[in-house]
Design a protein that fits this description.
Helix content is about 45%, strand content about 15%. It has a 7-stranded mixed beta sheet. It is built from 11 helices and 7 strands. By secondary structure, it is α/β, with parallel strands linked by helices. It has 2 domains: about 25-215, Rossmann fold (3-Layer(aba) Sandwich), CATH 3.40.50; about 220-275. The protein starts with a helix and ends in a 5-residue tail after the last helix. The longest helix has 15 residues, at about 60-75.
Length: about 280
Amino acid sequence: MSDEALSRIAEALERLSPAPLAAPDFDAADAFVWHVDPDRLEPVERISRVDLSLLIGIDRSRDTLLANTRQFARGLPANNALLWGARGMGKSSLVKAIHGAVNAEHPVKMVELQREDLPSVGRLLALLRRSEHRFILFCDDLSFSHDDQHYKSLKAVLDGGIEGRPDNVVLYATSNRRHLMPRDMIENERSTAISPSEATEEKVSLSDRFGLWLGFHPCSQDDYLAMIRGYCDAHGVAIDDDTLRAEAIEWQATRGGRSGRVAWQFFTDLAGRNGVAL
């Protein structure tokens, strides 16, 4: 066999079984995004987040997740956390804000993993396991459809298989669903299965593997107005209470509801009308 043929065979084998990914320079940034094809961790120069003090109406979830993250950053035992509930109520914002607050006290990195890249999580964990740093693995807007098998990959993070979850990794995930799957799927499988209790146990129990469940619920009008007032004070937007209340309630009515996201969207419009750069 010619040297050229051997070379082609070697290159094909290399593509099928690539060498382990070299560890990036984790000191280059506080956060990274995991990408595949090829596998790589890209540093995030500037994390999009708000200050922890500006998150209103989620005090219990804030305090619980903050304490858990501080334990983890100090090298103590900590739980994986599932933040679930109403849209736009600050689940993702809380994770990023807490990372910023804790990282200022004890160095901890954050790695964002997209739901569609869950099948590659084993390779990511192998890479993080070799590092001396501690990592919050962040999966935003996590949910599974009727024929989705990605949930099996998630178990590698929650249970860790034979090796166990790396001691230097904790998973924080957000979802609009408490059980990470559509309710009609759960009910359908229970009603048509020979053994209803076993039909959905594997999938439903996935959320049970999170040590912390933090629920987020629609905010009150007082909290909605307090959020906007907090943004105004923090960014120097001058507006009297009566005008703010009238305009904010009108904005809320046009959106069909209120949430932390709607409060920020109103404030963005307000700041723009007042010539204040954010």
